[in-house]
């Protein structure tokens, strides 16, 4: 069986979509009688290849732009899939691509809260209708959480069409590491002074709650006088300007470090050297950084919103992201309460054992195979 995997819309590996593809491809099963062919821009020929001969790559010669990619998917993807003789196609950026192959069975992965994605079309109802109609043409939809499945069902998608397959954790990357003796973590080109708390998420929209976290952190600093820094790690878009502005206005601006894009391969070290992971986003459909932090031996405090209670279970300290006082108190508790920290560390480390990319990849391939026979 020949499976095509579309890497368009995956930000050249520099986002959560890209991390998903990297991890999935690395763990594609070799005992299923399948061949795997990635397809996308020439620039990504080596971006997602694990280098073990597991996958091939077919480059599509189009300009590197969102418009060009959308036009190609609308008018050329069907012919391309037929030419490549794919038996099924996986679309990992299923919440970004607006047309799926009709003759070749398609599986779309939806990582986002779809009604929020639709609202970003700014009232252009024809685009939102095209988007929904296109997604409904996929034979199956993978939702990485029950929360996303519920959102899709509320938008009119058939429940039997949606399969919940949780994202995994690469336990060879994310695991507790020995404490670093130095008071500075050096990851080129960054030098991050310890102690610090970490929030790893793209600076992309208000629902990520970066601004509220900066205010809660400032209040935490004022109340406790502790030396901790706040590290915000993630790619940026136009919204990031407001986050930078809020950080600059803080009385504790010198203790707030915004990295911009941070290489995924270096996140294990970044997590392991931190005192805690604080995750205030209320728009998470997946919440992978939360369980990656747990696997790294880091206590987690996060918003009681979106998919986070489902993903983190009883192993995180929860707060209301719109209540600055409550978030500040959660930061203080997770830093200073040793009994709480020990409890979260132990329960979190046991909890994340259920997540693995091997399971995710196997279930995904089995779903694709079920459509071709």
What's a concise summary of this model?
This protein has helices at residues 16-26, 66-75, 77-83, 114-119, 125-136, 146-154, 210-224, 240-249, 267-272, 288-295, 308-312, 324-336, 338-351, 357-372, and strands at 2-6, 35-41, 56-60, 88-91, 106-109, 140-143, 162-164, 184-187, 190-193, 196-200, 229-233, 256-260, 276-279, 300-303, 317-319.
Question: Can you give a write-up of this model?
Answer:
With about 375 residues, the chain is an alpha/beta fold. Helix content is about 40%, strand content about 20%. It contains 14 helices and 15 strands. It has helices spanning about 15-25, 65-75, 75-85, 115-120, 125-135, 145-155, 210-225, 240-250, 265-270, 290-295, 310, 325-335, 340-350, 355-370, and strands at about 1-5, 35-40, 55-60, 90, 105-110, 140-145, 160-165, 185, 190-195, 195-200, 230-235, 255-260, 275-280, 300-305, 315-320. The strands form 3 sheets. It has a 7-stranded parallel sheet. A 6-stranded parallel sheet has the order 12-11-10-13-14-15, with helices on both faces. It has a two-stranded antiparallel ribbon with strand order 8-9. Strand 11, helix 8 and strand 12 form a beta-alpha-beta unit. Helix 7 (about 210-225) packs across helix 12 (about 325-335). The longest helix has 16 residues, at about 355-370. The protein is globular, with a radius of gyration of 21 Å. The protein starts with a strand and ends with a helix.
């Amino acid at each position: 069986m020949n499976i095509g995997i579309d890497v368009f819309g995956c930000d050249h590996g520099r986002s959560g979509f890209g991390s998903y593809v990297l991890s999935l491809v690395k763990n594609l099963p070799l005992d299923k009688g399948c061949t795997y062919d990635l397809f996308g821009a020439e620039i990504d020929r080596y971006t997602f290849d694990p280098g073990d001969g597991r996958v091939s790559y077919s480059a599509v010669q189009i300009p590197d732009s969102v418009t060009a990619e959308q036009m190609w998917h609308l008018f050329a993807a069907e012919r391309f899939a037929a030419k490549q003789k794919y038996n099924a196609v996986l679309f990992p950026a299923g919440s970004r691509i607006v047309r799926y192959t009709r003759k070749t069975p398609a599986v779309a992965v939806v990582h986002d809260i779809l009604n929020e994605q639709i609202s970003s079309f700014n009232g252009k109802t024809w685009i939102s209708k095209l988007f929904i109609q296109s997604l409904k043409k996929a034979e199956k939809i993978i939702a990485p959480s029950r929360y996303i499945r519920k959102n899709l069902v509320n938008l009119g998608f058939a429940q039997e069409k949606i399969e919940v397959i949780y994202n995994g954790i690469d336990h060879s990357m994310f695991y507790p590491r020995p404490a670093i003796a130095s008071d500075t973590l050096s990851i080129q080109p960054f030098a991050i002074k310890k102690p610090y708390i970490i929030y790893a998420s793209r600076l992309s929209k208000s629902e990520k709650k970066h601004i509220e976290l900066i205010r809660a952190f400032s209040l935490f600093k004022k109340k406790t006088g502790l030396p901790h820094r706040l590290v915000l790690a993630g790619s940026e878009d136009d919204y990031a300007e407001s986050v930078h502005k809020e950080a600059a206005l803080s009385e504790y601006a010198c203790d707030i470090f915004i990295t911009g894009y941070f290489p995924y391969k270096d996140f294990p070290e970044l997590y392991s050297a931190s005192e805690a992971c604080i995750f205030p986003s209320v728009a998470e459909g997946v919440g992978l950084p939360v369980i990656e932090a747990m696997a790294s031996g880091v206590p987690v405090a996060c918003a009681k919103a979106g998919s986070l209670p489902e993903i983190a279970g009883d192993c995180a300290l929860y707060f209301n992201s719109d209540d600055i006082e409550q978030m500040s108190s959660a930061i203080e508790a997770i830093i200073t309460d040793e009994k709480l920290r020990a409890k979260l560390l132990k329960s979190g480390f046991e909890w994340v054992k259920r997540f693995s990319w091997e399971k995710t990849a196997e279930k995904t391939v089995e779903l694709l195979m079920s459509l071709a026979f």
